[in-house]
């Protein structure tokens, strides 16, 4: 028996990996976050699979479901939106499984920021403009940020900032990044990336908050701020350069 933490992708059902879909198709138990994982994916499960929506379950209840499957010798597909490596709450579940000696495996998925970049038609790392991407969020009452990871500190790098779970706090985002990036720095928001109702907003750090409010974007959105979003004049990469020696 194995628990498979599967990245379900950013929203579109066909953005799950081949490995993820094949694993899902053979697991007799599937735990999924009903508020985020597309329902179409559940059609990949075996017809007699036990489906458990975790949207209203706490960590203890989720652990109980995994242990129940372990005792029954049933493989579990644990579907998480996006990719399990970032902002997925997988670490705490792994810790519980380690304590009980339950084996697990992680199958990566397409992260929301990658789907957002695709919607924007942008490479996030552009030669001579920006080669660093910072994935972060903002402090909330329930989950504060560690020391040194606040936006005011991270913004000193002037690297491309990608913010998850921050749509409701866009005014704070703008206030903390303005001193480092300036009001004219390119900014973009992609809400519900890859879904039929995807919404793309483009602007600057100075006006992106107003654009979000006008569009009513308050959740399920990725905010990006950085020079690479507007880069047009830049040097070609060395990878395909005509001057590069090739065997």
From TrEMBL:
Q: Does the keyword Methyltransferase apply?
A: yes
Q: Which stretch is the leader sequence?
A: none
Q: A Gene Ontology molecular-function term? A: precorrin-4 C11-methyltransferase activity
Isomerase keyword on record: no
Query: Mind telling me which InterPro entries this protein's record contains?
Result: 4pyrrol_Mease, 4pyrrol_Methylase_sf, 4pyrrole_Mease_sub1, 4pyrrole_Mease_sub2, Cbl_synth_CobM/CibF, Siro_Cobalamin_biosynth, Uropor_MeTrfase_CS
Q: In which pathway does it act?
A: Cofactor biosynthesis; adenosylcobalamin biosynthesis
GO BP of this protein:
cobalamin biosynthetic process; methylation
Return the SUPFAM superfamilies for the record: Tetrapyrrole methylase (SSF53790)
Family per record: Belongs to the precorrin methyltransferase family.
Name of this protein: Precorrin-4 C(11)-methyltransferase
């Amino acid at each position: 028996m194995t628990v498979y933490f599967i990245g379900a992708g950013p929203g579109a059902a066909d953005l799950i990996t081949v490995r993820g879909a094949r694993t899902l198709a053979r697991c007799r138990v599937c735990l999924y976050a009903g508020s985020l994982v597309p329902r179409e994916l559940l059609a990949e499960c075996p017809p007699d699979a036990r489906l458990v929506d975790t949207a209203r379950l706490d960590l203890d209840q989720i652990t109980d479901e995994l242990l129940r499957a372990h005792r029954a010798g049933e493989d579990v597909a644990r579907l998480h939106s996006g990719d399990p490596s970032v902002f997925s709450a997988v670490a705490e579940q792994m810790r519980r499984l380690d304590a009980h000696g339950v084996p697990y495996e992680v199958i990566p998925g397409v992260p929301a920021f990658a789907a957002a970049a695709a919607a924007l038609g942008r490479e996030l790392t552009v030669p001579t403009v920006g080669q660093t991407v910072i994935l972060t969020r903002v402090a909330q009452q329930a989950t504060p940020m560690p020391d040194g990871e606040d936006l005011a500190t991270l913004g000193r790098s002037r690297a491309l900032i990608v913010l998850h779970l921050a749509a409701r706090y866009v005014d704070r985002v703008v206030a903390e990044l303005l001193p480092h990036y300036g009001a004219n720095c390119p900014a973009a928001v992609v809400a519900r990336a890859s879904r039929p109702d995807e919404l793309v907003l483009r602007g600057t750090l100075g006006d992106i908050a107003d654009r979000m409010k006008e569009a009513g974007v308050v959740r399920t959105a990725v905010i990006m701020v950085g020079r690479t979003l507007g880069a047009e004049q830049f040097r070609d990469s060395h990878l395909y350069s005509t001057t590069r020696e090739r065997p």
